[in-house]
């Protein structure tokens, strides 16, 4: 999972060199934290709607955090993340949800860049997708509960890094 996250960070556009542009050529745009939180909440809702299963869901909201960055702008670069999970149903229902995501995310403006095992001992299924207009990303993992935990689908939708003069606590 860590390698996947590191690979996706390159496409998400955070700087790890001393400049605001990374190797993918992404120049973080100036945006308000509130606007990006709203955008990520809508994209996350799209993912939830695309699952098309009746399951319980955690009720967290999107939040902003600093992008890891070196250089002068490190305190002004943010990323918005919206993690949540769908749970309370069996693996058969969760499997249907993952199938819906594979089939329908592309029709909703997402490019599915990976479908396959997450590399864990449990061989959980994972979908990685990039929203074509915003370049926001989704990491979706079906944790089958083979290790004794409850089966669930874990979702993390997050933005590219962006520049904001005012942090999340200042808006």
SSE topology sketch:
Layout: H1 2-12, H2 33-51, E1 56-57, E2 63-66, E3 77-87, H3 91-104, E4 110-117, E5 125-131, E6 137-143, E7 152-158, E8 162-163
Antiparallel strand pairs: 1-3, 2-3, 3-7, 3-8, 4-5, 5-6, 6-7
Protein described:
By secondary structure, this protein is of the alpha+beta class. It has a single domain (2-163), classed as TBP-like (2-Layer Sandwich). The chain is 26% helix and 28% strand. The chain contains 3 helices and 8 strands; from the N terminus they run H-H-E-E-E-H-E-E-E-E-E. It has helices spanning 2-12, 33-51, 91-104, and strands at residues 56-57, 63-66, 77-87, 110-117, 125-131, 137-143, 152-158, 162-163. Strands 1, 2, 3, 4, 5, 6, 7 and 8 form an 8-stranded antiparallel sheet that branches. A hairpin with a 5-residue loop joins strand 5 (125-131) and strand 6. The termini are far apart. Mean pLDDT is 82; it is low at 1-24.
List keywords for this structure.
3 helices; signal; Lipoprotein; alpha+beta; TBP-like
The total tally of domains equals: 1
- Low-confidence residue ranges: 1-24
Gyration radius (Cα, Å) is: 16 Å
What would you call the structural class?
alpha+beta
> Which architecture name does CATH use?
2-Layer Sandwich
Average pLDDT across residues?
82
As a percent range, the share of helical residues equals 25-40%
Name the CATH class.
Answer: Alpha Beta
DSSP helix count?
A: 3
The total count of strands amounts to 8
Percentage of residues in DSSP E strands:
25-35%
Biggest beta sheet summary: 8 strands, antiparallel
Order of helices and strands: HHEEEHEEEEE
**Distance from first to last alpha carbon:** 33 Å
The CATH topology turns out to be TBP-like
Looking at how many chains there are and whether they match, the oligomeric state comes to single chain
**Approximate shape:** elongated
């Amino acid at each position: 999972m860590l390698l996947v996250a590191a690979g996706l960070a390159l496409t998400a556009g955070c700087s790890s060199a001393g400049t605001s542009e990374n190797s993918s050529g992404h120049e973080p745009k100036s945006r308000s934290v509130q606007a990006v939180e709203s955008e990520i909440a809508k994209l996350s809702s799209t993912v939830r709607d695309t699952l098309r299963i009746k399951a319980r869901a955690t009720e967290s909201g999107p939040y902003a955090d600093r992008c890891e960055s070196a250089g002068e702008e490190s305190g002004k670069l943010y990323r918005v993340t919206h993690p949540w999970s769908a749970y309370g149903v069996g693996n058969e229902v969760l499997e249907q949800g993952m199938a819906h995501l594979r089939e329908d995310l592309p029709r909703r403006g997402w490019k599915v860049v990976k479908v396959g095992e997450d590399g864990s001992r449990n061989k959980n299924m994972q979908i990685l997708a990039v929203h074509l207009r915003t370049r926001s990303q989704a990491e979706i993992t079906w944790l089958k509960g083979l290790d004794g935990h409850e089966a669930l689908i874990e979702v993390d939708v997050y933005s590219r890094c962006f520049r904001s003069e005012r942090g999340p606590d200042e808006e």
